[in-house]
Amino acid sequence: MNHRQGAGQVLRGRAFKFGDSISTDHIVPGRYAHLRSDLPELAKHVLEDADPTFASRVRAGDFVVAGNNFGLGSSREHAPIVIKLAGVSAVLAKSVARIFFRNAINVGLPVLICPTDGIGEGDELEVDLAAGTIYDRTKDLHLSFTPIPPVMLRILEEGGLVPYIKKYGDFKL
Amino acid sequence: MGKTLAEKILSQKSGTDARAGQMVIASVDLVYVQDTTGPLTIRQWEASGLERVADPSRTIVFIDHAAPSPRRELSNDHIFMRAFAQKTGAILSEAGEGISHQIVAETYAKPGDVIVGADSHTCTGGALGAFATGMGSSDVAIATALGKTWFRVPETYKVVVNGHFSKGVYPKDLILHLIGAIGADGATYKALEFSGDAIAQMEMEGRLTIANMAVEAGAKVGLFPADDIARRYLEAQGRSHGFQPLQPDDDALYERVIEIDASTLEPTIAKPHTVDNIAATRELKGTKIDQVFIGTCTGGRIEDLAVAAAILHGRRRHPSTRLLVAPASKSVLMEALMAGYIETFVEAGAIILPPGCAACIGVHQGIPGDGEACLSTANRNFQGRMGNPQAFIYLASPATAAASAIIGEIADPRDML
Ligand code: SF4
Predict the structure, then answer these.
(1) Has residue A173 been placed in a domain?
(2) pTM of the complete model
(3) What is the mean pLDDT of chain B?
């Protein structure tokens, strides 16, 4: 997946709505700790404790659309990884927990802070990362998201922290 | 303009005049992983191609979450982690040694340090005046290799706690109260900095519990000054050499000041399924409890076991309430053995679990059944947290946990002291 901002790439997919306070325990339950070294297998349980049908319904390109404090709790980076592995192209939320936000960018999963109340379950969305805009085709609703801090944007542009460090060898603020 | 504790530490470690809102690159004094985040951290470290560990003597690999391993896959993860430690010279803390954050407090964290761990409760080290924060595997992998990381210097909420705690009320009640008051995202991206008379008199065990749960309000770090209590704690461990007190400046700039009168606090509980879903314990009296768990990096220290043992001494658990006790570390277990607490627990009908995370995260040891309620001294009660999304988790102090184990229902410890 290419997240280069300059590429003018538009992400398209359907919205899967979630409420407030979706924790990393909902996303990757601790009882599957034994699958953490088998990420494709772990991804079959993504968000299972928030919506047990999600993993079977999500298709490549779709969006996770949540309320407040998405990704609170444990630092498990497996959480954004399995969301990405499930094909989700971005997470949209009213607010995001700190560690999850940094982890998501570090694994190349865009997390966009925006007002999500107007978006409905199953709505067709278009996200223009470069323009900073979200268009809900179903509702004919235009939204914008809070700009990602520059240091994180550069990491996202490289597809995550590991590829970024491979390229630059060090942090650049 | 003066500086907050976070600004002071990050200025020192970045070699800049760090102020809230700025981005800095800071050197890192201690890096650690545990066994549910460690394998991915090691794989990210390998993928980075950096192939080095900045300081093996300040890099620790903990086996505490699945300790001892209940499954072949986890045993194999442990093999992978041991091999990494062997290859790089990093320190290995084996199953049975205890929970990472407890061992870091007992052995490694120092005032003014920057500490990053691949575990959200790494913020526990803030009790010792260290800028300690949890990160994901990629960040910790790169910090391991480069010995530094980037931070946005957080704005600080000053939490001023004055007054005396009433009998039966503990630091755990204070932090639950605070999280309930500001919400589980009430301090997202912020530093919490604790001060006031009640904090100045609080022992390190209580401070560790409060700093640990800063993340449950979304905070990046929960900082305490490095004062006489910190010095004495380090002295007792033989680590006070070169101790430098660390206090915020009087004219530091705070985004918000929260004042709490400790004397108004009472035993407090977080109800399922969020930590900010707070109620007074007395309001929940009579709620049936199937399992009580005393342990974790929040409630498994020696002071916690002492309080629980005092209540359980000469009493027994309710016949339909299971009681699990897990000391936070091997040294806590040793102290509890010598003090007779373990005997008290066994006589009270408890199951003693090995030092480690035990029942906290649902990997093994004490997964509640469908519809069951567990009262735990841990820091999190998210749905599914203890291994069963059909179970209900209540969080409370060790005193409330012990009292409830005896009654078989949520009980107010003040009735038993
Ligand atoms: S005891 Fe619980 S909260 Fe603490 S490190 Fe272990 S799993 Fe995490």
Answers:
(1) no
(2) 0.96
(3) 98
